[in-house]
Amino acid sequence: MNSERDQWSSRLGFILSSTGAAIGLGAIWKFPYMTGMNGGGAFFLLFIAFTVIIGLPLLISEFIIGRGAQKEAISAFKKLAPESGWSIIGRLGVFGSFVLMSFYSVVGGWVLIYSALSIPGLIIKDNANYEQLFGMITGNPLITILGLGLFLIINIVVITFGIKGGIEKASKILMPLLFIFFIVLVIRSVTFEGASEGLRFFLQPDFSKITGESVLYALGQSFFSLAVGFSVMVTYSSYLGKDVSLPFSAGSVSIMNIFVSLLAGLAIFPVVFSFGLEPTAGPGLLFMVLPEAFAQMPFGEIFLGLFLLLFLFAILTSSFSMLEIITSAFTANKQRSRKKVAWIAGLIVFIAGIPAALSSSTLANFKIFNLTVFDASDFLVSNILLPGGCLLIALFIGFKMDKTLMRREFNASNNLSPNMYQLWFQIMRWLVPITIVIVFLGSLGIL
After folding, report:
1. Cβ–Cβ < 8 Å for 389, 232
2. CA dist list (Å): 54 to 20, 70, 309, 427, 431
3. What angle do the packed helices 56-69 and 212-226 form, to 10 degrees?
């Protein structure tokens, strides 16, 4: 895809592709275990609040910056604020996407392996120990590195051929199917004996379990699940025509993201409590619970195989956006081949991802601040780089970007009240940066 000429073919294609970029692991994989480890319902409410009050305005901001500049992340800030240091936001986005993809692709590899195993029915078996299966897969260096490599190859191939004809067309079919299969899983999940206890854990808030760290995690989760902070949506919206309402598109992406997070919780926690599993199981929660649920369903092997393939697609659409921001940053001047840059970037991500892939095996005892490489990378992205990127974007919108251009992009192709622009702008100028700083300082025990 040429980053300056290509356009999304339709508003629906842009919304579904952006939703795919946003949902990915954030809503389906990370949200359930973060909720389980941070008190359940109270965390969910915090996540919704942060998504609506902070995440949505930030998403609109990235859309405005990208379409306003019609450039990829780094070039966009250079164009909108020439001869200044604001391009650091785009550079931070490229670096953050690189770190994120290095461990994100490890999980993508796990899903790829599970998808392959589910096709011949190797996962669902009578009296199977799914926790042991997950440990066997993640604890085998060769399997995890193979999964990492295959996952990245898929990403590289798609990026070299562009995303307009591939991701957009597929998103229109596979994203709705993902919703349908999720709903099927939820219906089955809530009918298990003992499911009500899981529903109470997820939907009944207990704020006594919320700490300053939990609030930071909820804020980071809202950023992670909407893909804001790393200028990924700046790059995506740079391919967007002027006939699309940015607030409407951002609202649609945010609503679908919250809905998928709700479905993930409703699908996971009833099963967790019905089968006596631990909601604090961590990153492996989804991989141990899903097979357990499908094993109880008629034609469970077929459902699990289809769902894992759709889950894999959701992860891929998200990872495509990360590799796209990296690739587009180094092909913006057209002097480098997109194909060559994509393969080089993918190879570097593969090498950087190996330590995270070995975090459950060879490097299990290697710790960074008492965290494995995988967990340390996750913490760096979710709790430092993403909030930092969001803070800088808020400051750029509030104090640097041209107000006339912002108003024009915000109001294009919609009938919103003029007061909506002012509300969004004041939220971005004051509420968003102040909230990010307060939550971050609070997590450090300074406030």
Report:
1. no
2. 20, 24, 32, 8, 8
3. 40
Q: Which two structure tokens, joined as six digits, stand for 6?
A: 């290509």
Q: What is the pLDDT of residues 350-381, one digit of tens each?
A: 999 999 999 999 999 999 989 999 999 988 98
Q: pLDDT per residue over 56-74, tens digit each?
A: 999 999 999 999 999 989 9
Number of separate helices (H) and strands (E) present in the chain:
21, 0
Q: State the architecture of 11-443 in CATH terms.
A: Orthogonal Bundle (1.10)
Q: Which two tokens stand for residue 184?
A: 């099927």
Residue 433 above 80 pLDDT?
yes
Number of Cβ atoms within 10 Å of the Cβ of 400: 12
Six-digit token string for 110: 């796990």
Whether residue 43 contacts residue 34, with contact meaning beta carbons closer than 8 Å, is answered with yes
| 8 A C-beta contact, residue 97 and residue 349 | no
- Going by C-beta distance under 8 Å and a sequence separation of 6 or more, which residues neighbour residue 377? 99, 100, 102, 103, 356
Asked if 305 and 115 touch (Cβ cutoff 8 Å), the reply is: yes
Compute the distance between CA of residue 313 and CA of residue 293 in angstroms, rounded to an integer: 21
Q: If pLDDT is split at 50, 70 and 90, which confidence band does 166 have?
A: low
DSSP, collapsed to helix, strand or coil, labels residue 240 as coil
Q: Over the chain, what is the mean pLDDT?
A: 86
Nearest to 229 by CA among 314, 155, 338, 321: 321
Would you tell me the crossing angle of helices 11-25 and 169-189 to the nearest 10 degrees? 50
Measured at the CA of 284, the angle between CA 279 and CA 290, to 5 degrees, comes to: 80
| CA pair distance 111, 12, nearest whole angstrom | 27
Measured distance CA(183)–CA(262) in Å, rounded: 10
Residue 344, classified by CB atoms within 10 Å of its CB into exposed (0-12), middle (13-18) or buried (19+), is middle
Q: What is the pTM of this model?
A: 0.88
Task: Measure the CA–CA gap between 142 and 418, rounded to whole angstroms.
Answer: 57
Return the bridge partners of 368, or none.
371
Q: What pLDDT is recorded for position 4?
A: 45
| Cβ–Cβ < 8 Å for 442, 216 | yes
**Residue spans per domain, the chain:** 11-443
Residue 52, CA distances (Å) to 48, 163, 204, 229, 251 in order: 6, 28, 20, 15, 9
DSSP string, 131-154: HHHHHHHHT-HHHHHHHHHHHHHH
Is residue 120 classed as helix, strand or coil in its secondary structure? coil
